[in-house]
Every structure is written in C-alpha cells, then in structure tokens.
Amino acid sequence: MNSTEEALNERIKELTCLYEVSSIIANTDAVAIEDTIRAIALSLKKGFQFPSETEIAIETPIFNYETGAINLENSVTANLTIFNKIEGKIVASHNSSKSSFLNEEQPLLDNVAIKLGNLLERIEIQKNETSLKRQMERADRLGILGEITAGIAHELNTPLANILGFAELLKDDLNKDNRATDDIDKIIQNAIFSREVVKKLMFFACEMPQEMKIVNIVPSIKSAIALLDASFKKAEVKYIVKIEDEELFLRADIIQLTQIIFNLTINAIYFSPKNGIVTIEAFEINNDIVLKITDEGVGLSNEALEKVFQPFFTTKPTGDGSGLGLSVVHGIVASHHGAIVVENNPNKGATFTVKLPKS
C-alpha cells in the first residue's frame, strides 16, 4: 500500500471516529454520561493509526475513564473546556516508545474534546434548568399555601379573641367556684396556645407587622445563641459560632431575625446526636448577609427537602413539633426579600443557609 492510500485510510478512520463520537453524543443524556464517556474513549481509540497500541484517558468533573495504562512519555493531550474553563482533558498514549503520532491525530483529539466539552455544558445547563424549575414550583406551592394560611389565620383570629375574652369574664363571675375556674383556666390556656399557632401562621404568610431598622446583627446572634446555652447542655450538644466580623449591618426586624436564629438553632439541636456539633456562621458576601446553621444529624430525606418549609410538615414524632417552625422562618425570610435553602452535607447532617439583602 503506497503512502497516498495509507493517508487516505487514516483520514477515513478519523472521519469515521468523529461521526461515531457525534452519534454517541447526540443520543445521550445526563443519566447515561458515564456510559457515554466510555463509548467515546473506545471509539477514539479506533481512530488512531495503531489502535492496539493506543490507550485513551478521559478526565471530566463528572467521571474519569481509561481504556488501559497511560504512558505519558509518549502521549498527546487535548484540554477539555467547559464554559471557557479548563475542567479536564483527553489523553492518547502509545504503549511503545517506538510508535509516534500522526500530525492529523492531534486535531482529531482536539475535535473530540470540543464535542465532549459542548456535551458537558449542555448537561450542566439542563441540570440548572431542572433545579430552577423545581425552585419555582416550590415557590409557587409555598405562595399558594401562604395565601390559604393567611385566610385561615384571619378567620381564626376573631373567634379566638372572643373565646379568650369571654372566658376571662366568666372566670371573674365564677371566682368562688374552684372547680369551674380550673376548667376556665384550661379554656384560657388552650385559647392562648391556639392564638400562638395563629401568630405563627401569620408569620409564615408574611402578615405580621414589621419594624425594619438598620441593625448590627452580630450581638443579636451571639445573644440568641447564649440564651440557648441551656438547651445545648440539656441535649448534650456542642456549638461553634464562626463570625469573624464585629459588625454586620442589615436592614431587618430584629425580633423576627432573632426568631430565625432561634428556630433554626433549636431545630439543629433537636436533630443532633449526643456530642454532636452545631455550627453557626454569619458573614457578608457581595450585598448580602449570609447566616448558616449546620448540624451533624442524619440529614433530610428527598421528601423532606421538598416539603421542609411547608406549614404542618414535620419529621418529628407526634407531640414534638407543630410543623410550623421552619415555615415561620421561611415567611420571615421572604418578607425580608431574602432566600433560604437547605441541603444535606457531604458527610452527615444538613445546612440551612439564609441570605438577606443588606438594604
């Protein structure tokens, strides 16, 4: 076979390889990305002059794959660029130091790297779109729940006030009848408890009046945590406060801000194991104040991650929680035009992150 025929055959192999890689990429999705990377590596191996002596390594942020042992002393490399950043590479190597690469084989590697980079960009965009869609759906659900909750709260507020008022009047009338006044006390206590539940519902629905001021939140956070010291000791849970700044100014209702800290910290204590550590962080980033509460518990299930801020949803046993604490936090954060997210930690536990605009 003369050199012209050899060159033509090599060109056909390269074009066939590019066609195969394009077909593999066109028929893949995020779920099958590992199989796709394997298939690309095996197809690319066939595109080189000496397939049996060539090994391919593909490194990506998602998955790494090698067809065999890589000899870096006799290799060619193409960088994998994702959103204009080098995030990996494709390496082709020869087992034998005697074999050399054709001039055309570097462009082949570069072309495949571009195609794979485009695929990984597309998958990342799809993931972001899916995540954004879920966030919007969750926000819509919470918005509808907020409207329903506000209506329920307003409907309950007036009769509860009447029950409480008439019960107190009746108690005055029955002052000498101890048994009757005991029963009236129970009515009053339950009415007060119900009124507090309504208050929490109104917090969630952003219906409570606010007194917004520019405040330094660092002393407030430290004071709130100090007040919870007994709760930490009772649960045998430790805590770390990470606040490097002496001043973190924020336009907020300081009472509601304290309620955010209390509710998230109490929640973290509840789900922490004995000798576990709750970490409270606060810092400034861009034009936001960020508050993070991290525990070392078991984390949240997928269902809990979806519903954790919905009123009356709780993973606590019956009697341990009303399911309103985190929904109240969500309502307060929303009324401050902020955002709150929860995610499981890589090792154990969960982290609640609150972002509040400074002004």
Q: Which features would summarize this protein structure in a list?
A:
Beta-Lactamase; 19% strand; 11 strands; 9 helices; 359 residues
Can you tell me about this structure?
The protein has about 350 residues and is an alpha+beta fold. It folds into 3 domains: about 5-130, Beta-Lactamase; about 135-205; about 215-355, Histidine kinase-like ATPase, C-terminal domain (Heat Shock Protein 90, 2-Layer Sandwich), CATH 3.30.565. It has 9 helices and 11 strands. The protein has a 5-stranded mixed beta sheet with strand order 6-8-9-11-10, covered by helices on one side. Strands 2-1-4-3 form a 4-stranded antiparallel beta sheet, covered by helices on one side. It has a two-stranded antiparallel sheet with strand order 5-7. Strand 3 (about 75-80) and strand 4 (about 85-95) form a beta hairpin. Helix 3 (about 105-175) packs antiparallel against helix 4, helix 5 (about 215-225) packs across helix 7 and helix 7 packs antiparallel against helix 9. It starts with a helix and ends with a strand. The mean pLDDT is about 80.
